[in-house]
């Protein structure tokens, strides 16, 4: 059973949509039978809002799902009502980013490309603080940094996430926070790059143009086959989750291509260490 309430809500949403379609019911018909609006049922099926276990039970009865299968889904629905640790930071984390953190907390694999900044899971406290200051100002900065550091536990838990990062070489050269902060950040990344679950690839300027020049991204994969992979894109004001299989496959191929164009992990580690010495 998945642990993150975000992932559980997503699982319930997908199961209810598939069961309704298998039962041959339109949204209109199902919503009327369940005594809810069509828009509410649509939002439930798209994981935009949650659903109470008793309403899950009613939907399963409507779709003629009983026995152990029904009880398993109801139990997942109960778990979806629990609070994730990130919800304690709702004063500083926008709702759309809370959704991402909920997925990240359950992910088995993360594949990402970053063009301008060190990914949040690899940031030092000082680097993270400076990133927030220059992009969002001083308000709530310490709470934001605390949440970012808490996210990094996924790298060190009992079953750690497997992280594959491609970094534009510019990330190594941009002195965020000044030379001392940057030297420490690069040394920190070099240490993390030696973990068995972390692979860092530096994409050098010499590689020329590449297919991710228009976007950074994160591809999240999950251990349970019932939880489909997600591509997540964001900016300062919104996030977007892409869940269609064709979209995920396209970004997966993109990541593979970037890894081929980038330095291998050993050469990337040497480049990180060299860049750190240049700031020291």
Indicate the topology:
Blueprint: H1 5-22, H2 27-33, H3 38-45, H4 53-62, H5 67-80, H6 95-104, E1 109-114, H7 125-136, H8 141-151, E2 162-168, H9 170-173, H10 179-192, E3 198-203, E4 217-221, E5 230-234, E6 239-242, H11 245-261, H12 265-279
Parallel strand pairs: 1-2, 2-3
Antiparallel strand pairs: 1-4, 4-5, 5-6
Helix pairs in contact: 1-5, 2-3, 4-5, 7-8, 10-12
Structure description:
The chain has 280 residues and is of the alpha/beta class. 50% of the residues lie in helices and 12% in strands. The chain has twelve helices and six strands. The chain has helices at 5-22, 27-33, 38-45, 53-62, 67-80, 95-104, 125-136, 141-151, 170-173, 179-192, 245-261, 265-279; strands spanning 109-114, 162-168, 198-203, 217-221, 230-234, 239-242. Strands 3-2-1-4-5-6 form a six-stranded mixed β-sheet, with helices on both faces. Helix 1 (5-22) runs antiparallel to helix 5 (67-80) and helix 7 (125-136) crosses helix 8 (141-151). The longest helix is centred in the N-terminal third of the chain and has 18 residues, at 5-22. The radius of gyration is 21 Å and the shape is elongated. The relative contact order is 0.12.
């Amino acid at each position: 059973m998945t642990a993150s309430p975000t992932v559980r809500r997503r699982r319930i949403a997908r199961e209810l949509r598939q069961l309704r379609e298998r039962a041959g019911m339109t949204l209109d018909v199902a919503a009327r039978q369940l005594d809810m609006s069509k828009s509410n049922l649509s939002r439930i099926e798209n994981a935009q809002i949650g659903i109470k276990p008793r309403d899950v039970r009613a939907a399963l009865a409507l779709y003629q799902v009983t026995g152990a299968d029904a009880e398993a889904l109801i139990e997942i629905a109960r778990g979806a009502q629990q609070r994730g640790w990130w919800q304690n930071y709702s004063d500083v984390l926008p709702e759309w980013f809370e959704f991402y953190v909920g997925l990240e907390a359950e992910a088995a694999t993360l594949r990402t490309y970053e063009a301008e900044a060190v990914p949040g899971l690899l940031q030092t406290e000082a680097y993270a603080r400076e990133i927030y200051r220059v992009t969002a100002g001083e308000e709530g900065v310490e709470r934001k940094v605390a949440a970012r550091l808490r996210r990094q536990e996924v790298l060190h838990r009992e079953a750690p996430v497997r992280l594959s990062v491609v970094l534009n070489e510019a990330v190594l050269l941009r002195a965020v926070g000044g030379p001392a902060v940057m030297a420490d950040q690069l040394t920190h990344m070099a240490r993390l790059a030696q973990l068995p679950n972390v692979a860092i690839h530096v994409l050098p300027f010499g590689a020329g143009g590449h297919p991710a020049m228009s976007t950074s991204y994160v591809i999240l994969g999950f251990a349970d086959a019932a939880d489909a992979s997600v591509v997540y894109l964001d900016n300062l004001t919104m996030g977007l989750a892409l869940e269609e299989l064709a979209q995920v496959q396209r970004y997966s191929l993109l990541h593979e291509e970037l890894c081929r164009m980038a330095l291998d992990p050993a050469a990337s580690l040497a480049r990180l260490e060299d860049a750190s010495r240049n700031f020291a």
